[in-house]
Amino acid sequence: KLMINKGTDATYMDVAANDTVTVTGTLYLTNGYMGSSGGTLTNDSCSVNHNAGFDGGDYGTLINITGGSGTITMPESAIIPALTLNAANCTLSLSGTATTTFDSQLTLTSGTILANDAAVDIDGNAGNSTGYTQSGGTYTGRSGADNFDKNFTVSGGTFTSGGGRMMNAASSAFSLSGTGIVDWSAADRVDLDTGTFVMSAGTFVATSNTMYSANSQWDITGGTFHHSSGTIEFDGNQVTQTDVNTSLTLAHVTLNRTSSW
After folding, report:
1. φ, ψ dihedrals at 66, nearest 5°
2. How many C-beta neighbours within 10 Å does residue 234 have?
3. Strand 48-50 and strand 70-73: pairing?
4. What's the pLDDT at 53?
């Protein structure tokens, strides 16, 4: 077992570059802050106890859950260090309706993430952020909003948004490839304010409401795009370019730009 109880966010535990600390029992994130020069804190038992007062951490992949089985339940409003879930029989379950924050990045390789009714924020301004990356496993939202401040990359597994607002920050990139499935059909609104929307394979299900695309370059060369009878509105004040392999079928399109197409 390992307990981190440092007191304030000015006092933290640091894992040195290229080092790995493995916790075979429970990892207790009680108080303080996690910093890392590039090291990894591994838990191979699907056992993390996160106190509501823990202050997160934003430098690289700090926590890597690699094994075990069961459910890790995060408290409402948790601030979670950069995290990788790579354990097929492990479930990460969020609590409440307030915002759960992942400092800098969240990676899902295998296993299950249940956002439930919590709003989710991946803080793309923190540390060496890579945003959200999924190559396997299942992410399921319910009613909360998803605010991903950095890149959104899915190459495998299934990502299903909740019924709240789905947002992605400007100058980021949406990328769907491989066998990935991204289902945003339930979202009440999608603000895809990304630099690029790239889809080379996989399946994308758009919201049945309105997806706003501001200042984005669309590049769709493969995969399956389901419009869900929703509306795509191209807005913003910069030029948008759309490049598709052969053809793209959309239900409703609104052009609402302050500059040329």
Report:
1. -115, -5
2. 19
3. unpaired
4. 82
